[in-house]
Specification:
The chain contains 9 helices and 17 strands. It has helices spanning 3-10, 20-30, 118-122, 139-143, 171-184, 205-209, 257-269, 286-289, 317-335, and strands spanning 36-39, 45-49, 59-64, 69-75, 81-86, 98-101, 104-110, 130-133, 151-154, 159-161, 165-168, 192-197, 216-224, 244-246, 274-275, 297-305, 313-316.
Amino acid sequence: MNIKLLEDLCNLYGGSGDERAVRDFIYEKIKPYADEISIDNLGNLVVLKKSKQKSSVKIALTAHMDEVSFIVTSFRHDGTLKFAPVGGVNADSVLGRRVVVNGHSGVIGAKAIHNMTEAEQKAPAKFDDFSIDIGCLKPVDAEKIVSLGDRVYFEKNFISFGNNMIASKAIDDRFGCAVLMSLMEKDLPCDVTFAFLTQEEIGCRGAKAAVLDADFAIVVETTTAADFDGVDDDKKCTKIGNGAVISYMDRGTIYDKNLFEICKKTADENNIKWQTKTIIAGGNDASALALKDGGIRTCAISIPCRYLHTANCVSSISDMEAVENLTQKMILAIANLK
């Protein structure tokens, strides 16, 4: 796994509908390995890499470029900003987080606890309770440097720590982008379309619009790990360190059963650690890809990730390597189906 590439990707800012910086970075890196490159009206970057070998099988690998983010909605009388989430962010995960607004630093704040009523202290957190402090004391000062509709991002914070672990914003799904970029450099057994998709976090919009000439699709993603003390095993969903997650169903997709079995077999034959999810939860671009153009046979291979959709997603490098290795082996396995 190219950890430096992953760090560079995670440190970029690119929310749903605002993926340009990520797309431009990927475009420049993959140009030497691409035979055809196109960018559609939703900003999807679709790249064809032709194989030196002859095969009738057409495969698409996909990952999404966008990260969860926020958007400025109004100015408050004290110079702070009101904002709303762009994607599935839990309100209770944002208080005190450092953010970037139009290139300016900020901190997400709320009413001081000693000014809260008992009922307010016990109530679930809501985005209406929060504002972004950008160091301005009056709205007129804030309006000089920030505009309504500006995007807000968790500040870049990539670190390696502990026992082979990574923490960062935007691992979902800059990890998948890094895998696709690495695999583009390799000799492949058939023509492969690499699709770097937009707006997954707000309903898989890029995947719905993307034009992909493929019989099969592999979605490279991240998925939730809840492997904490006190959580029953069947509620942990996935576990850090247990390898690649091969999905059979989530809230948006029932995955191709034959590909699911091939993926498990391929992992076993190549001594790649793998697991499945123990809860039917979440979803990804497969929900749109599987229904395109009469149907694309689709599988998903993901890394387990703690604290998904927060400022500090946590994943294991060993799991990342398992996903990258399994994805490469699955291209070969699928190429040999016909």
